[in-house]
Amino acid sequence: MRAVLRRLHSPDVDDLETWAPESGACFGVLVQAFVGPQNGKGEESFDFTVCSPEWLARRHGRNAAVLGRHHLLLFDYDFDEVRRAIESVINSAEGQNWQEIASKIARHGKWEFEDYNPDS
Q1: Which residue in 21, 55, 78, 115 has the most C-beta neighbors within 10 A?
Q2: Is the distance from CB of 5 to CB of 33 less than 8 angstroms?
Q3: Within 13 Å of residue 76, how many CA atoms lie on the same side as its CB?
């Protein structure tokens, strides 16, 4: 089984394709990748903080340790590069079922059901 990127969305900007950060070297934006089974219906969200190293430095300080999970680092904002990077993650995730695939993608983007436990 494989997954496919259905669409990219950001609650922070109106149009990711045409958006340009105010400062090309310092930006951070939430990008939600809506992903579903290649041969099936439905989609689930995986969130990526797309940001520059300068944005991380300003947000956390230059002496802070920053764990990179759920982040996609770019030196300059380029929508096509964002799409390529996220599609690469999705295309490399294979599994016997959706749970396996989603768990692999969730290593990179925060899955909307990442901490969900139906038994709790």
Answers
A1: 55
A2: yes
A3: 3
Rg (CA), the chain: 15
Residue 11: which residues within 8 A CB-CB, separation 6 or more? 30, 32
Angle at CA 40, nearest 5°, toward 36 and 97? 70
* pLDDT one-digit tens code per residue, 19-77: 999 887 899 999 999 999 998 899 999 999 999 999 999 999 988 888 889 999 999 99
Q: Of 45, 93, 60, nearest to 73 (Cα)?
A: 60
